Amino acid sequence: MRILVTGGAGFIGSALVRHLVLERDAEVLVVDKLTYAGDRRSLRDCEGRPGFGFLQADICDRARMDAAFAEFRPEAVMHLAAESHVDRSIAGAAPFIETNIHGTFTLLEAARGYHATLDAAAKQAFRFLHVSTDEVFGSLGPTGAFCETTPYDPRSPYSASKAASDHLARAWRETYGLPTLVTNCSNNYGPYHFPEKLIPLIILNALDGKELPVYGDGSNIRDWLFVEDHARALVAAVERGVPGETYCIGGRSERRNLEVVQVICDLLDQRLPAARPRREQIRFVTDRPGHDQRYAIDCGKVERELGWRQQESFESGIARTIDWYLANDWWWQPLRQQRYAGERLGLIPAL
Ligand code: NAD
């Protein structure tokens, strides 16, 4: 398959592209602006492989998107490019509105223009997969789980911008017949995760002997999915999903934030014993405004209809993730140094 992947230099995008290029022999064109969150080094295993191409471009740039479609002639689009960090969206929402809403609109319009040029068979086979988050559904109480029919209730600038883009993707199918599908996935973790996100931040601060910041009392619950399992689910959605449908993807691995931090401390203590147990580095910090209490996903539809199963349990996935960070400081050291420089300049909210 010939697939145009937006945001392919980011965390999930690069896992997807490695899977497509290295395990599925797909032809892939990555379209990525290379914001602070994009890193071409995450794709170094794909560089030079037949069928792998990279275009540094902004999805808001209609002329460049039109040219990318016309030259690459994709059979599918997997749209992951986004501003993705909730804390940054609270500090400044403008890039979230621009990329997540205007960028998705621009890409849909470019895809629609290209789709109209295809012959009938290619038109029918074409897929536009819009990759989204479970955060569009808001916050859950102690029981229940999000599913495909859960009403939208976004509560942060990030989730509101993603909700808007989900609606655009669905509207372009209903209105213009573009074969779009939407996936909403729970929190991902794994290798190449940008060091500002909870799990890598905790691993790296724990290694450095720094404080381990936990929002509020650490009772917020997330449903964790190993990133390579998400990548496999996205490919299943493009290959076997039905246009117009939504698929909720999750890990059936609900954990309180504090539990996640404690597991990381304990696994690091086993691998690299420190003078004091690393749990002593945990510090509770002022909660994020509008912090959603609990997310959980019922992924029954994607299991039944797409035949997808996650392969990694939380226990094995978190151990693999820790081992990857221990073995790959070439990747995270430069990003972490930039982060601290950004914090000192007041460009990045300190955590
Ligand atoms: P990320 O921040 O790691 O990567 C985003 C990528 O998009 C980066 O490579 C960045 O350079 C690129 N990008 C940003 N703005 C762009 C623009 N205007 N034009 C082109 N490229 C641009 O994000 P991620 O965690 O890999 O998430 C990928 C997608 O999956 C997002 O749409 C996100 O909403 C969704 N998602 C993420 C999670 C999660 O846990 N991380 C869970 C569910 C869904």
From TrEMBL:
<dbReference type="GO" id="GO:0009225">
    <property type="term" value="P:nucleotide-sugar metabolic process"/>
</dbReference>
<dbReference type="GO" id="GO:0008460">
    <property type="term" value="F:dTDP-glucose 4,6-dehydratase activity"/>
</dbReference>
<keyword id="KW-0520">NAD</keyword>
<dbReference type="InterPro" id="IPR036291">
    <property type="entry name" value="NAD(P)-bd_dom_sf"/>
</dbReference>
<feature type="domain" description="NAD(P)-binding">
    <location>
        <begin position="4"/>
        <end position="320"/>
    </location>
</feature>
<comment type="similarity">
    <text>Belongs to the NAD(P)-dependent epimerase/dehydratase family. dTDP-glucose dehydratase subfamily.</text>
</comment>
<protein>
    <recommendedName>
        <fullName>dTDP-glucose 4,6-dehydratase</fullName>
        <ecNumber>4.2.1.46</ecNumber>
    </recommendedName>
</protein>
<keyword id="KW-0456">Lyase</keyword>
<dbReference type="Pfam" id="PF16363">
    <property type="entry name" value="GDP_Man_Dehyd"/>
</dbReference>
<dbReference type="InterPro" id="IPR005888">
    <property type="entry name" value="dTDP_Gluc_deHydtase"/>
</dbReference>
<dbReference type="InterPro" id="IPR016040">
    <property type="entry name" value="NAD(P)-bd_dom"/>
</dbReference>
<dbReference type="InterPro" id="IPR020904">
    <property type="entry name" value="Sc_DH/Rdtase_CS"/>
</dbReference>
